[in-house]
């Protein structure tokens, strides 16, 4: 391969590991052949060379994970035949044991979901697991899952095969070339500077593994990524270990096992992981190893040996320690970098670069060539960290300790990170803590999840797939919202002031709904891409002729800000100010919300004077606040946007004034159950960039005839013209009050699988578990089909009857909201 660098390329990829070569391979398959891969040393010399090379799915909990996994498994299986380069792929199968009922519940739920995406698995007995993996101890195992199609590959050979495929279609791979800087002009990337000269380029991709954070920092990019020590032990040969031994993943001991030259490779994802080189990864760390910390690792190896006792007595050939990079939320960093057009990122694969590399390469290649991502990007889009958080040395040091085990061990609903907490607290944090709040974490925010009574024992979460320890307290919060009045701290909602001469023009061009409305109007709208896929769902409030307030969920903070800024025209004057840090949002909701508000405000709050979906500046005690009469829970109420300076005083005033009205604090669990009873949608949870407002049942907020149109208008018009969709979002209610819905439960219509639940909760008012999800049939899915069909939902292998509805099952006429 030539080591000369060109002066220009259509795309330059920084990094010659699994990810970089996958991107080059897929770009060239799409016809972009003027591609250059720059590797500072030799291909795979970073972390790819020491990867374990397992192609196993674990328990995948999202559509995008299943899609990327199955795509990659199938590509790797056929890569040798395509390129002529041996990859070492072997289909030996994969076993996951469950030694507890909770782990079995997790695996059963995961199996039902993953099977919809072509991942074959079978529940087997402990005896059958021992037959397949005879050196294992399954004496405590209740059941296990067997994946016959999964296997392993050689990471180095597989990467070389990808490189060969890319070169055969015109890509150039240049080794021994270090990228010193990313060149930019006017907010766009223009190329790279190397130790051999500059290369000008239309696109640059940062795919440099654990070096990506510091490379991105040179261009002012925030890429929160941290390397951690990763261990595996290789034993001498063990009797009974053959090349056909299946892979074994044991979440109970945070260990995995596979054959290695007649012995075992015993890998660890231990719960007290060690961050490595917090400040910077050495540039000269080539095919490098880390000196093992035997004292820290031996107890974890001993726990692993209990699963495979013969490994404890086998000779140790090597204890290997090498770095792997992890992100703060265990999702990859992929997509166009916020603030720098045509600079792309593909990093932070959380030790799963071989597993997800082909899928990430495919998705990013389409993103670059087609202008949009072909899979749901809401979880891994790099712009979720656009606010610069999660990247201080102290945060990365503390969070990384938890990440390995978090990625590997058993999982529960509502589980959250325990380390590096307190990144974002509202002004009410201490008040809510004193009121009994148990805090969960979302995108750095401390959010009250539920409230314990003052006489309760320590406020801790007892994780379970059943009714958890907070169940009864949460049910009381839910009833208070439906019968009396609740307060919710929703300060985590992202808030932007959009102002200037062209603010209205910008927002109207990116909004499906009409936002050129009178002052004081609140507009619910979706934002879509050219294909009609969601990019946000939010509210836009007109505060003045050239002043708007945009409010969106915390999970869309970075993406919303980036989307707005990217669509400001070259001749437009618009300022976008993130006011989230300065505003405390207190939601007052419930049938007695007006009674409470009238006790603290002289403003006329009647329905005539302050109708639904309007906003006013009002008095609350001594203070002036912006009040929006909107709801996300299906009840009368207001969002109060209070300056932090006055937040505690306003909260205290509301609590005191509402004491005899039954006012109660409520948390995120209650928000979820209330909004799902009303079937409200949530971008990034229920709908994503591969969905559209027409199929999601939000056509009422799409104004196809508004002057000037909007981004995605033509695509949505074509969908509308096709008539009744065959894929539609429905609300579901289990008729049996016992089982619970969380997400991913398979939905059946007349005995045929037609979809799955996107998110579920318990509808305490409706009397059963409730959820929303898409159902897709061969022909148009009509209202009659929905009403007359026999619906069932699979919960951990058991099908339960369900009711389906196109309209909200709770208050479909919106009488309560407009009261």
From TrEMBL:
Domain GCVT N-terminal: 428-706
Domain of life: Bacteria
Annotated FAD dependent oxidoreductase domain residues: 11-367
Domain Aminomethyltransferase C-terminal residues, every copy: 727-811
SUPFAM superfamilies noted in UniProt: Aminomethyltransferase beta-barrel domain (SSF101790), FAD-linked reductases, C-terminal domain (SSF54373), FAD/NAD(P)-binding domain (SSF51905), Folate-binding domain (SSF103025)
UniProt domain FAD dependent oxidoreductase central: residue ranges: 370-426
Family stated for the protein in its record: Belongs to the GcvT family.
This protein's name: FAD-dependent oxidoreductase
């Amino acid at each position: 391969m030539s080591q000369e660098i060109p002066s220009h390329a259509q795309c330059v990829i920084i990094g010659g590991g699994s990810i970089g070569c996958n991107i080059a391979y897929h770009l060239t398959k799409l016809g972009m052949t003027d591609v250059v891969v720059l590797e500072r040393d030799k291909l795979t010399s970073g972390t790819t060379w020491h990867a374990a090379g397992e192609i196993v799915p674990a328990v995948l909990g999202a559509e995008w994970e299943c899609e990327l996994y199955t795509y990659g498994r199938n590509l790797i299986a056929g890569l040798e035949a395509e390129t002529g380069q041996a990859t070492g792929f072997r289909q030996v199968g994969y076993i996951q044991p469950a030694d507890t009922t909770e782990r079995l519940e997790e695996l059963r739920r995961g199996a039902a979901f993953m099977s919809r995406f072509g991942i074959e698995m079978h529940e087997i007995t402990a005896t059958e697991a021992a037959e397949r993996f005879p050196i294992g101890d399954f004496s405590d195992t209740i059941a296990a899952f067997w994946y016959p199609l999964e296997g392993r590959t050689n990471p180095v050979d597989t990467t070389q095969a990808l490189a060969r495929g890319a070169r055969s279609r015109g890509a150039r791979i240049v080794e021994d070339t270090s990228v010193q800087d990313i060149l930019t002009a006017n907010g766009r990337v223009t190329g790279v500077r190397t130790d051999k000269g500059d290369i000008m380029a239309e696109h640059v991709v940062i795919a440099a593994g654990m070096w990506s954070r510091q490379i991105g920092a040179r261009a002012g990019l925030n890429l929160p990524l941290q390397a951690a020590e990763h261990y595996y032990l290789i034993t001498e040969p063990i009797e009974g270990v053959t090349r056909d031994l299946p892979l074994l993943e044991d979440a109970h001991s945070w260990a995995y096992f596979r054959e290695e030259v007649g012995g075992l490779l015993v890998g660890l994802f231990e719960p007290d992981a060690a961050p490595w080189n917090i400040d910077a990864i050495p540039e000269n760390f080539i095919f490098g190893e880390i000196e093992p910390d035997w004292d820290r690792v031996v107890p974890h190896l001993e726990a692993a040996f209990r699963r495979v006792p013969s490994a404890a007595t086998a000779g140790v050939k090597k204890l290997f320690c090498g770095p792997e990079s992890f992100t703060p939320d265990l999702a990859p960093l992929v997509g166009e970098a916020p603030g720098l057009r045509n600079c792309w990122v593909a990093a932070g694969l959380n030790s799963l670069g071989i597993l997800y590399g082909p899928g990430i390469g495919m998705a990013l290649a389409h993103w670059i060539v087609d202008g949009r991502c072909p899979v749901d990007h809401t979880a891994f889009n790099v712009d979720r960290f656009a606010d610069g958080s999660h990247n201080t040395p102290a945060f990365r040091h503390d969070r990384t300790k938890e990440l390995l085990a978090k990625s590997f061990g058993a999982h529960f609903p509502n589980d959250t990170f325990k380390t590096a907490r307190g990144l974002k607290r509202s002004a009410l944090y201490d008040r809510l803590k004193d009121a009994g709040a148990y805090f969960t974490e979302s995108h750095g925010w401390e959010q009250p999840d539920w409230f314990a009574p003052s006489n309760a024992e320590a406020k801790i979460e007892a994780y379970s797939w059943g009714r958890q320890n907070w169940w009864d307290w949460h049910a009381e919060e839910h009833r208070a919202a439906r019968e009396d009045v609740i307060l919710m701290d929703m300060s985590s909602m992202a808030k932007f002031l959009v102002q200037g001469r062209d603010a209205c023009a910008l927002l109207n061009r990116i909004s499906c709904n009409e936002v050129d409305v009178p002052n004081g109007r609140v507009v619910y709208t979706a934002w879509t891409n050219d294909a009609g896929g969601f990019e946000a769902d939010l509210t836009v409030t007109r505060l003045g002729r050239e002043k708007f307030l945009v409010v969106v969920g915390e999970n869309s903070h970075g993406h919303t800000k980036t989307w707005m800024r990217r669509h400001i025209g070259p001749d437009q004057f618009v300022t976008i100010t993130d006011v989230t840090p300065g505003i405390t949002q207190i939601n007052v909701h419930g049938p007695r919300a007006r009674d409470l508000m009238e006790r603290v405000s002289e403003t006329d709050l009647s329905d005539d004077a302050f109708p639904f979906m309007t906003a006013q500046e009002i008095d609350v005690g001594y203070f002036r606040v912006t009040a929006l009469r909107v709801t996300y829970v299906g009840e009368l109420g207001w969002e109060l946007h209070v300056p932090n300076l006055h937040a505690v005083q306003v909260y205290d005033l509301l609590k005191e004034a509402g004491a005899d009205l039954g006012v109660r604090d409520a948390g995120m669990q209650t928000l979820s159950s209330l909004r799902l009873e009303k079937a409200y949608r949530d971008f990034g949870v229920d709908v994503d960039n591969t969905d559209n407002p027409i199929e999601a049942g939000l056509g009422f907020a799409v104004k196809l005839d508004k002057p000037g149109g909007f981004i995605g208008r033509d695509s949505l018009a074509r969908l509308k013209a096709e008539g009744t969709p065959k894929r539609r979002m429905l609300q579901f209610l289990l008729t049996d009050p016992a089982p619970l819905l969380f997400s991913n439960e398979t939905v059946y219509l007349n005995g045929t699988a037609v979809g799955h639940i996107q998110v579920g909760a318990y509808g305490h008012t409706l009397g059963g578990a409730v959820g929303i999800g898409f159902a897709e049939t061969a022909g148009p899915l009509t209202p009659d089909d929905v009403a007359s069909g026999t619906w069932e939902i699979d919960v951990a292998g058991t099908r339960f009857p369900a009711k389906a509805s196109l309209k909200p099952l709770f208050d479909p006429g919106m009488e309560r909201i407009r009261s």
